[in-house]
Amino acid sequence: MLTSSLLGPSSTSVLRRLDEFEFVQVVALDLDDYEQMRAEQGEAELRAVVDAFDTVVRSVAHAVAGPKAAVVIPIDPDAWVVSFHSHDAQELSQLVTSFIEAVVPASTGSLLTVTAGVGKARSGESKFDMSLKSAFRAMERKLVEGGNSVYEDHPVFSSEAEFAALSRARDRFQSELLACIRTADAERAVQAATGWIEFVSASSGSSPDLVRQATVAAMIFVADNSLAAADIGGEAEDRVRKNLEDSRQAFTELGILLEAHDLSYLTLWLSSYLRRVISKHSSDERSPLMNAVETYLRQNYASAELQLSDVAKAVHASPFYISHLFQREMQTTFLKYVTNLRTEHGRRLLETTDLPIEVIAHGVGYGSARRFRELFKKSTGLSPREYRERIGRPELDLPEG
């Protein structure tokens, strides 16, 4: 959490000169989706927008309260702390209201919108620090309620019951993420993680702390499972181990992550982490032939007659060489890869349809529903029916036998 000690000596000295005023009230301003827009628009174009808004913030603050009663402190690259001072609490409230009404609409029409966190008015010793913390607590609501808004300091908390209600969704997310780790599919992992964090944020009763906890939990889950999935020894395991070592730098940034109040920043940060870890789970780069093999399998996994020889023939390579590619580039076998692919598609059908399990089994390439049940339980720890019951799907028309 920011305090005056983190704002720089020059800002602190200015604030000390305003100690003569009895009351202080802090407004925190944060440009929405800044990091995402910087990636899309480029630094130069976005910097011009930020500089223009900085001019607006300063001019409005000084017009409303005068330079003696308002201090504007920029926090690079996309935020401001504006401190208003007065001897009269009612007058102070009016100054803050006038400032907010002028500044927040000023961003409309630009590349970026702004969110304001309004701290409580404070007096006495450490009044600035207390109002600043209040402003940033207000800003935290942006994580669960969205940007382009004005928030006051009314913290949101999650109950134990609300946290428990997310456990089923978390299990589904971790199951999908584990499949991504095993197949070294970083981009699919990014999509899954982004969807999960957005789901937590939008859930009834969610809180900023719960969203941050979900992000950190996803990091730890990936770190714990990436090396376990690479239990193959030799150079391939060394490569995964080295990449996980490199990724530990991300954990040193947790202090920043745990104070983040922008959902797009959390998802961008987690996406970067996933790409660093999961994309290196396989060899440095997939060969064109391996890409062709994967494309063929994703198009034909539902065929119960699918054999390694069929794949080899389709990509004009020998079965022996294809097996070698799976070991070298995917750190798995052809059979395990196909089984995982079929299980994953079966899981999705269990989640999204009411189809009988026998129909799903045939739809993902198994001639026998019993075989599908065996492999699904081996992969997930649950039978197909147990899995459906856990996620709340209706009972099936046909018995599982």
Overview features:
disordered C terminus; alpha+beta; Arc Repressor Mutant, subunit A; disordered N terminus; 401 residues; single chain; 20 helices; 3 domains; Alpha-Beta Plaits; six-stranded mixed sheet
Q: Could you explain the architecture of this structure?
A:
The protein contains 20 helices and 6 strands. With 401 residues, the chain is of the alpha+beta class. Strands 1, 2, 3, 4, 5 and 6 form a 6-stranded mixed β-sheet that branches. Strand 2 (70-75) and strand 3 form a beta hairpin. It is elongated and about 85 Å long.
Give the second-level CATH assignment, the architecture of the largest domain: 2-Layer Sandwich
CATH class of the largest domain: Alpha Beta
Strand content: 5-15%
CATH third-tier fold name of the largest domain: Alpha-Beta Plaits
Low-confidence stretches: 1-6, 231-236, 280-284, 395-401
